[in-house]
Amino acid sequence: MDRFVFLLSAGLARGAVLALFALSLVIVWRAARVVNFAQAAMAVAAVYAAFAVTAATGSYWAGLLTGLASGALLGAAVERGLMRRLPHHNPLPGIIVAIGLVMVLQAGLAIAFGPEHRPMHPPFSERPFIIGGVPVLSPYDLFILIAAAVVMGGLALLFGRTSLGLQLRAAAFAPETSRLLGVRVPRMVTLGWALAVATAALAALLLVPTELGLNPHAADLLFVNAFAVAVIGGLDSPVGALLAGIGVGLLVSLVTGYASAAAAPLAVLALLTLVLLVRPGGIFSAKEARTA
Amino acid sequence: MSPNRWKTALRALLLTVLAIGATFGLDPFRNYQLATIAACFAAVAGLTVLVGLTGQLSLGHAVLMAAGGYGFAFTATAVEGPWALSLLAGLGGAVAVSGLLGLLLGLAAARLRGPYLAGLTLALVIALPSAASTLPLGADQGARAPFFAVPEALSALIALEQWHAWLAIIVAALAVTPLVMLRSGRAGLRMRAVLDDETASRLSGVDPGLVKAGAFVASAVPAGLGGAVLAIATQQVTPGGYGLAFSLLLVVAAVIGGLGSIGGAAIGSVLVVLLPWGVDEIVAATPSDLGQRLDGNLAVLLFGAGLIAMTLAWPGGAARLLDRLRAARPSRFATPSTTTER
Fold it and tell me: Which is a Gene Ontology cellular component entry for this protein (chain B) (predicted)?
């Protein structure tokens, strides 16, 4: 029972990171109707920037801000420089260019920083609190949960309550009409990419200190799991991403704890296959209209 | 068989004999590289037909190769007897295992589009090491494939690597030739119809789901045979050899060669085998620290940049260059070009 509670609490923090990364995929999907396969590599590039700044200044928070800013810049640059130039009616060229970008970024990072794992230290202790003799969340887990909640709340406010959010949604759903109504659609798409990659960078920044260390492939598994989460939740649905993220986080934690760490990717693959076969649009997707 | 098919078979036979003749001019290491190229060619040919003709992008063809490799290793080891019997049984095992996995993926693919299928196959590649350690596949050490020595009649004439290159060329030819016939025949026409307009093809009595699943199987079997070729040449199958990097290289080869083109697949396979080797040879000459960082990475960087440049600027790939050269002389059997553009 103690073990179960511990695994559940560990899964909760893991799920928050997954949900955050899945949310970043949902934002790109809603803004541009593409799945960004380079999201993990771009996020890791931003984490390297954060790592360099933290190493230079000694401040975790300066690094965090740098990571978010460089993620946003990278997202905007990729959208302006590459994705905009591709045909929109066919998803294939976008996926292939994203794969090329993954190869360029990962190889470039390995050349620039070396292929070894660089340890990143969390700003808070990873020693769990003991409540009633049971180890539960650590201060760092709590920080992850709070950061994820703040960012998700902020994004929900942005999209749901502000004029900018309305323009972002309008540009994504009806580009032609919004253009006629004076929304600068290309700028909104760029902004969507910037927001998404910054969110992904935050998720990777939160994840890396709990893993083996920073290396160019640090977020590969995160991307695959988050893709599964986004698909299970429905690529259109932020709420779906949140719920599915927590669910998959708990699943991974329980499978790792009771079976083995090696079985976790298989469990996610099985779940993804099952959902795609039974409900290809995802569990929380509202409507059938999907063109890509 | 129609005259067209005889022509294809004859051309395949001629190319096979030419390739086997070429092995006499190569040293053992070059022959080993030739066997690797043949393995990649089989897999890339399958992938390029799948992507170019049906628009289904698979990032997981390395896993299908691995499935073929494991199938080959286990059946060829299990069947006792003369080497030819064991080889044939192994190839049969490779076809069965990769075909079965391809069918499962194809059934899923029939319901999925673009990014969903790519994501599912990506998850499959990432899960391969887990599968190898959870299922009885020998974990990271992988499985041992039987060793095929040079037959006595030939042992005075050729070296071991050359013999393996012969086997590789013959298996690759057997894997790719049916694919070429499929592509230019009725099945290829159906695949193009489904790619162009699913509704219209359904109205014409073509079931898109069936065509997509069938295309996946037809693409998985050559990939599995490619895996069997690699198992012959290296005498082992390890999950590490079929990782994400290798899987993406197959996509690079298909795109750089030109999606849908078998000749392009050959060009792409030569490139993805020889370029990393050539780059690493040059890098080995640079000072140690920088050289260590560039080793293996520089080639990936170049391929990534090439992939982006190719998709943005020249979606037809190398195959279009061939077409342009060929356009100078008239051809009776003009095949419709298939590119990433629709």
Answer: plasma membrane
Where in chain A are the domains? 2-114+139-278
Q: What percent of chain B has pLDDT over 90?
A: 8
Chain B residue numbers touching A290 (CB-CB < 8 A): 113
B-chain residue closest to A290, CA distance: B113
Closest approach of B124 to chain A, Cα-based (Å): 7
Per-residue pLDDT of B296-340, as tens digits, reads: 788 888 889 988 888 887 766 666 666 666 665 544 444 444 444
Structure confidence by residue, pLDDT tens digits, B69-107: 899 888 888 887 788 788 888 889 889 999 999 998 888
Tokens of A105: 């970024």
Query: Which value does ipTM take for this structure?
Result: 0.83
Report the alpha-carbon distance of residue B11 to residue B180 in Å, rounded: 11
Q: Are B50 and B58 in contact (CB under 8 A)?
A: yes
Which chain A residue has the Cα nearest residue B112? A280
**CA gap A197, A24 in Å, rounded:** 7
Check CB contact of A26 with chain B, cutoff 8 Å.
no
Do the chains contact at A103 and B248, CB–CB below 8 Å?
yes
3-state SS string for chain B: CCHHHHHHHHHHHHHHHHHHHHHHHCCHHHHHHHHHHHHHHHHHHHHHHHHHHHCCCCCCHHHHHHHHHHHHHHHHHHCCCCHHHHHHHHHHHHHHHHHHHHHHHHHHHCCCCHHHHHHHHHHHHHHHHHHHHHCCCCHHHCEECCCCCCCHHHCCCCCHHHHHHHHHHHHHHHHHHHHHHHHHCHHHHHHHHHHHCHHHHHHCCCCHHHHHHHHHHHHHHHHHHHHHHHHHHHCEECHHHHCHHHHHHHHHHHHHHCCCCHHHHHHHHHHHHHHHHHHHHHHCCCCHHHHHHHCCHHHHHHHHHHHHHHHHHCCCCHHHHHHHHHCCCCCCCCCCCCCCCC
What is the Cα–Cα distance from B96 to B101, expressed in whole angstroms?
9
Domain boundaries, chain B: 3-242
Q: Do A93 and B308 count as a contact with CB atoms less than 8 A apart? A: no
- A186 or B196, which is more confident: A186
Whole-model pTM: value is 0.84
Burial of B88 (0-12, 13-18, 19+ CB in 10 A): middle
Provide, as residue numbers in chain A, all residues whose Cβ is less than 8 Å from the Cβ of B240. Answer: none
Closest residue in B to A29 (Cα) is: B115
Assess A110–B contact: CB distance below 8 Å, yes or no: yes
Answer whether A55 touches B (CB < 8 Å).
Answer: no
Alpha helix stretches (DSSP H) within chain A: 2-32, 39-57, 60-81, 91-113, 139-161, 163-173, 175-180, 185-207, 220-233, 238-258, 263-278
Q: Of B256, B305, B122, nearest to A40 (Cα)?
A: B122
So what's the pLDDT on residue A72?
93
Q: Does A96 touch chain B (CB under 8 A)?
A: yes
Catalogue the long-range contacts made by A261-265 (C-beta closer than 8 Å, 24 or more residues apart). Answer: A262/B129, A262/B130, A262/B133, A262/B134, A263/B130, A263/B134, A264/B130, A265/A221, A265/A224, A265/B123, A265/B126, A265/B127, A265/B130
Across the interface, whether the CB atoms of A292 and B115 are under 8 A apart is answered yes
Predicted confidence at residue B324, as pLDDT, reads: 67
Give the fold, CATH level 3, of A2-114+139-278: ABC transporter involved in vitamin B12 uptake, BtuC (1.10.3470)
